[in-house]
Amino acid sequence: MFSGIVAATGRIQNVSPLEDGVRLTVDVGSLGLSDVQLGDSIANNGVCLTVIARAGNCVDFDVSRETLNCTVGLAEPGEVNLEKALRLSDRLGGHLVTGHVDGIGVVQKFEPIGESHELVIRAPAALAGYIAKKGSVTIDGVSLTVNRVDGRDFSINLIPHTVQVTTLKRLAAGSSVNLEIDLIARYMERMLAWRDENPGTEGTPA
């Protein structure tokens, strides 16, 4: 589990093909590895990956073909947002993030507005209903608050600090981004669908 508060940006240095996916070697930058063990989870651009090897300031991750098919930013060298998995004692500065990407959005606009930037993203039709004004959404691993929703498009206000310390500063119209919807919205839909399909089951579980 993660919070969507990016701790550092790293860089994918090498992508090696596997039988059913790839192995990434990531220079983790200033993330710090003193408390990282083999088997730990680190989010890369919002994707929860398992540490399989360490060497100096670099970490290796295996990424399955299934993950590559439903995410962006992991198939070639480039910059990535990094966050270690939460401890139970950590502050939850963003919102609860699973590191399981729900779909890919496309940037419609990324423009400065005064000190900040406006980011407008078009969500896939299957995810648009989960995105609400003043709700939370994760974009490339960054926890953000939705300012406006217009059909499948939603708008985010990025403060200068967020632009400075994440890879979002490199976005432009046409860029693809990883989206994770709010965890609560996902469970609410399942609860409502279950009640519609199974009338009379409301109430306290037995």
Overall morphology: globular
**What value does the Rg take, in angstroms?**
18 Å
Distance between the ends: 29 Å
Order of strands, widest sheet: 1-2-5-4-3-6
Mean pLDDT: 94
- What is the number of helices? 4
- Residue share in helices? 10-25%
Order of helices and strands: EEEEEHEEEHEEEHEH
Largest β-sheet summary: 6 strands, antiparallel, barrel
The structural class is mainly beta
Based on DSSP secondary structure assignment, what is the total number of beta strands?
12
Query: Can you tell me the residue ranges where pLDDT is under 50 for at least 5 consecutive residues?
Result: none
How much of the sequence lies in strands comes to 35-45%
Provide tags for this entry.
206 residues; mainly beta; 6-stranded antiparallel barrel; 4 helices; globular
Describe the structure.
With 206 residues, the protein is mostly beta strands. 15% of the residues lie in helices and 43% in strands. It is built from four helices and twelve strands, in the order βββββαβββαβββαβα. The strands form two sheets. A six-stranded antiparallel barrel has the order 1-2-5-4-3-6. It has a six-stranded antiparallel barrel with strand order 7-8-11-10-9-12. The longest helix is centred in the last third of the chain and has 15 residues, at 183-197.
In short:
The protein is mainly β and 206 residues long. The chain has helices spanning 65-69, 125-128, 160-165, 183-197; strands spanning 8-18, 21-27, 41-44, 47-55, 58-64, 78-84, 103-113, 116-122, 136-139, 142-150, 153-158, 176-181. Helix content is 15%, strand content 43%.
